[in-house]
Amino acid sequence: MGAEVAAGGGSLLPGFLGRKSRYARMDDVLPPEPEDVGVVRVRGGGGGSSRRYVFACSVFASLNHVLLGYDVGVMSGCIIFIQKDLHITEVQQEVLVGCLSFISLLGSLAAGRTSDVIGRKWTIGLAAAVFQAGAAIMTFAPSFAVLMTGRLLAGIGIGIGIMVAPVYISEISPATLRGTLASFPEIFISFGILLGYVSNLVFAGLPDHINWRVMLGAGILPSISIAFVLLVIPESPRWLVMQSRAGDARAVLAKVSDSEEEAQERLAEIEEAARVTASDKAAWRELLRPSPVVRRMLITGLGVQFFQQATGIDALVYYSPTIFRDSGITTESQLLAATVAVGFSKVAFIVIAIVLVDHVGRKPLLYISTIGITVCLAVLAASLSLLARGALPSGVAIGLAILTVCGFVAFFSVGIGPINMVLSSEIYPLRLRAQAVGIGFALNRMASGGVAMSFLSICRAVTVAGAFTAFAVISALSVVFVHLFVPETSGKTLEQIESLFGGGVVTSGEVELGDAERLEHKRLVTH
């Protein structure tokens, strides 16, 4: 079930970061229901008001993603003061930081069945409540063991929240807004990271036994607002249909649709989709013994998920103060101020990605992203190495460190950061998408946790410069991977995408968009 939730919103993510694609995906197109004389008509919410309502619901549902971003960002500064106060070892620091990815994966696996039983809306509330409990325990933790207990609870809450929100947003959003609204969780994660960095800077001046507790306790505030959210947002219409509450689903759709006709059409599509349920066992059998076409899809999807984390983004976000200290920044206030600049870069460039992804295409942005990351990592590693040898002035090394770290998160945010899930949701056929994207998400979280939990040990073994040299090599391999294994999927139908992976006859590697338009037109006319 966790895999299903991981991709529950994934099947609706081809337009994830921008305008809706002009080409319909053939596996997502449902035949129109014949008009039923007995159907009760409902009045649509009206274009402007319904869109504002859906926008507000999507913002509220994404608040749990602020918690994930805040936890990631704030821990980079907290760890400095926790080490001083609780006298934890370097290995304990790695475990405290890195366990979040593994624990959030467990929460995500639990989110599927939970949201099916109690509903998407109340699962969002449950996620916030579990996180609040964990954050409260961490805030008052007298020892490392108690701190880890709170961290585990907070991780489970975050895992539940980050999986159910995209599903909820995709299920209430009309097709014309789905692409833009589905990008909200990624934006809110970046915003949460920035808030965590700012919290570090603001509260760093408090005594060492208090400041990190205030930083962690401040993370409870966004989750408290979820109580208000639950009074405002409606339940998912798809879940209501699954519970045989079609009347309630129709009432919700009336609020989030532009017209009476659209609401009725969406209800018919949801009811049809609920009747046609794919076999989990058949999907897993096909993934475990894939055909050549599915194998190539898995190589592409899993490879992008792996390289997104293996290039070291979580090491940089969690341990940026360590990196800046190694470059020559000495005071804690300066270290934390430099991390705030990193947070601003991440937020700014994720917005740019939203604008560009459907206009420029997936593969060009991946090229820009992976090449840019490789250059930044190589320059950072070289500057730290030269500084250690005394061949580079301290002021120059500090400037290069800040520039390259900010450049890293900028290139990450404009390409491989948001595009990995977009690409994964586009390349798999509907019958396999939930399970395949779920596998990719699990691989992504395990790679993230592995990097975060081993970074300090690697630095101790080969220096910080050596660690980033290794990340630069991995990033260079990601450029080669994109060139060899990632096709351009933007604007393609399922038939087009399967042909790109060898599932059909193609004459020139990729099918031109004009041909795609004619194929789509022919299909619509003949049906």
What would your notes on this structure say?
This protein is mainly alpha-helical. The chain folds into 2 domains: 47-233, MFS general substrate transporter like domains (Growth Hormone, Chain: A); 289-491, Up-down Bundle (Growth Hormone, Chain: A). It is built from 24 helices and no strands. It is globular and about 70 Å long. The two termini are 35 Å apart. It holds the Pfam family Sugar_tr. InterPro entries: MFS_dom, MFS_sugar_transport-like, MFS_trans_sf, Myo-inositol_Transporter, Sugar/inositol_transpt, Sugar_transporter_CS.
Write the layout of secondary structure elements.
Layout: H1 2-8, H2 47-61, H3 63-86, H4 90-118, H5 120-139, H6 144-172, H7 175-181, H8 184-203, H9 208-217, H10 220-224, H11 226-232, H12 237-242, H13 246-256, H14 260-275, H15 280-288, H16 292-310, H17 313-327, H18 332-360, H19 362-388, H20 394-414, H21 416-427, H22 430-485, H23 494-500, H24 513-526
Helix pairs in contact: 1-4, 1-6, 1-22, 2-6, 3-6, 3-8, 3-9, 3-17, 4-5, 4-6, 4-22, 5-6, 5-9, 5-11, 8-9, 8-18, 13-14, 15-22, 16-21, 16-22, 17-18, 17-20, 17-22, 18-19, 18-20, 19-20, 19-22, 20-21, 21-22
InterPro entries: MFS_dom, MFS_sugar_transport-like, MFS_trans_sf, Myo-inositol_Transporter, Sugar/inositol_transpt, Sugar_transporter_CS
Transmembrane segments: 53-83, 95-112, 124-146, 152-169, 181-206, 212-233, 335-357, 364-388, 394-416, 436-458, 464-486
Keywords: Coiled coil, Membrane, Sugar transport, Symport, Transmembrane, Transmembrane helix, Transport
